[in-house]
Amino acid sequence: MIVPVLMFFAMALSPMDEPQTETPPASVALAHVSNSFRFLVHAPLGRAATLFGPEKERSWAGKHWNPEFLYPQPAKDEQGAVFTVQHGRHKSVWINTLFDLAGGRLQYVYFIPDTLVSTVDVKLTSLDASSTTVEVTYVRTALQIAANDDVRALGDSDRDNGPHWQEAIEAYLRDHSK
User: Fold this and answer.
1) Is residue 132 pLDDT above 50, yes or no?
2) How buried is 54 (Cβ within 10 angstroms: 0-12 exposed, 13-18 middle, 19+ buried)?
3) How far apart are CA 178 and CA 167, in angstroms?
4) CB 117 within 8 A of CB 96
5) Residue 4: its pLDDT value, please?
6) Residue of 4, 41, 87, 174 with fewest CB within 10 Å of its CB?
7) What is the pLDDT of residue 64?
8) How many CB atoms lie within 10 A of CB 74?
């Protein structure tokens, strides 16, 4: 099973069905994790970078990655784009905060209300005319104690996603070679 880009995070979340707000006691910290993975894409930087916009990502990330654009309309990969992604009973709200294809940098902030806030930072570096390295960093913070275990579990799974992303992107590139 291919784990889609940026969507695998929320499918297993288990916080309560009804939003609740908790103020943690001073002695209990909310979970905060940061994990990265790297992989190689056999494509030039310019082509590889376009694959990390939410709209283009549909082409390789699998059936579970289905962003619904609030802005812009019609849907377009650009800085400032705002979209939602449904994951079971959870809906996350995403904002594209950096979209620099030429510089190989993309960044997203997303949140699931009353559960977590995450950043996804994508850095691409040209190795040569036909290869690009990709580094993806997830930073996740629980918004309430009930989400701590989920945030930690998602952080643990983030580290293992590089091979899945590489496989999906390479398959897309093979099927859509110029």
Assistant:
1) yes
2) buried
3) 19
4) no
5) 41
6) 174
7) 87
8) 6
